[in-house]
Amino acid sequence: MKTSTSLKEMKQRHEAITMITAYDYPSAKQAENAGVDMILVGDSLGMVVLGYDSTVPVTVDDMIHHGKAVVRGAKQTFVVIDMPFMSYHISPEETMKQAKRMIQETGAQAIKVEGAKEVITTIGKLTNAGIPVVAHLGLTPQSVQVLGGYRVQGKDKEAAQQLIDEALAVQASGAISLVLECVPAPLAKLIASRLDIPVIGIGAGEHCDGQVLVYHDVLQYGVERVPKFAKIYTNMNDVVHSALQQFVAEVKTKQFPTPSHSFTMKEEVISELYGGNTNDENY
Ligand SMILES: Nc1nc(=O)c2c([nH]1)NC[C@@H]1CN(c3ccc(C(=O)N[C@@H](CCC(=O)O)C(=O)O)cc3)CN21
Ligand SMILES: CC(C)C(=O)C(=O)O
Ligand SMILES: [Mg+2]
User: Are residues 120 and 144 in the same domain?
Assistant: First the structure.
């Protein structure tokens, strides 16, 4: 199991950190078996496994339900879980209460929060309470309606400088790592070099300390289009489609099930069930 200290040491020795999302028991088990360093129970689950068109409808209960299954599937892997939309903005009391539930009820090792300005003091409070916090800057999908769409962030001088300042601020308030989403590669490179904590990029280029992608994008599983920054390593849509089509066809044509997928019983018991009438048309 990685720790915030060992992740920082990986950064220091320039060993790339790998992170992938998982939302349930089988995906978590697969991620762990493939040797990822960290698993993210992302609120992207709202879009990729619950079918919402943004991450905004996702609740703390949704996150806990999926988070518990992920932790059961990946007991040896560092699991980070997203605090969902508005669960850390209402009041400090509400934030602490929900963060406590997320950690205690799932067994995850850390939580992740989007943004900087409004969450700087929150990161410090959670850290002081013993909850490791991962920050998330750049394209922050919970604010998609404020950002005006899923767009690359930090392209001009002012926006880039603001991102640099925010990255330093989340580190100063105790964040153990920073996820940087959809920012120009040169800006991500500069931020990663200025910070001591690992910067995990998604659409942030090759110079981050690690990379994170959404499980269903990597596998093209259930998703139709994937963001430009995602790399598709296999096409599960085709694999699943053809397997399910074959199942349907084989049942229709009576090719499935065969005796090898069935159970039988003693001949004499069957005969008794037919009242000894072995001439019955169904016998
Ligand atoms: N399947 C999936 N993968 C993700 O990476 C992901 C989600 N869902 N849901 C939550 C957020 C939303 N994310 C997204 C969604 C769309 C784009 C996107 O369409 N980006 C444009 C680039 C726009 C530009 O050029 O400014 C693209 O063409 O990829 C990016 C990030 C990342 N996260
Ligand atoms: C895209 C990653 C970083 C995320 O926050 C999520 O999957 O919810
Ligand atoms: Mg997220």
Answer: yes
